[in-house]
Amino acid sequence: MDAQWLRHERIADTEGIGRLANEQIVKADANRSGEDETVLRCECGDDVCHEPLTVTRAVYESVRHDPMLFIVQVL
């Protein structure tokens, strides 16, 4: 395995961990409506990023319809 491949794998793992964490947050807030806001974790591939971001449930669900999309904090 080359370094580039390992880097891409690490980034994908980090994105997946962020996604799983957010799925648990949303599951715990199951009673919220589509317009209610929830504070989630950034799903970027930076393993030291823990930026919070606020999104509506409707936005979260629209992003989840495409498995290639992630919720990230724009800095």
> How do the SSEs run, as a string of H and E?
HEEH
- The percent range for helix content is 40-55%
* Class by alpha and beta content: alpha+beta
- What's the number of extended β-strand segments? 2
Residue-averaged pLDDT, rounded? 91
Work out the helix count: 2
Strand order of the largest sheet: 1-2
Largest sheet: 2 strands, antiparallel
What is the end-to-end distance? 33 Å
| Total number of distinct structural domains | 1
**Low-confidence region ranges:** none
Global shape = elongated
Radius of gyration: 13 Å
Beta-strand percent range: 5-15%
Overall description:
The chain has 75 residues and is of the alpha+beta class. It has one domain. It has helices at residues 3-28, 57-64, and strands at 37-41, 52-56. Strands 1-2 form a two-stranded antiparallel ribbon. The longest helix has 26 residues, at 3-28. The mean pLDDT is 91.
Highlighted features:
single chain; 75 residues; alpha+beta; two-stranded antiparallel sheet; 2 helices; elongated
Briefly characterize the structure.
The chain has 75 residues and is an alpha+beta fold. It has helices at 3-28, 57-64, and strands spanning 37-41, 52-56.
List strands and helices in order, with pairings.
Blueprint: H1 3-28, E1 37-41, E2 52-56, H2 57-64
Antiparallel strand pairs: 1-2
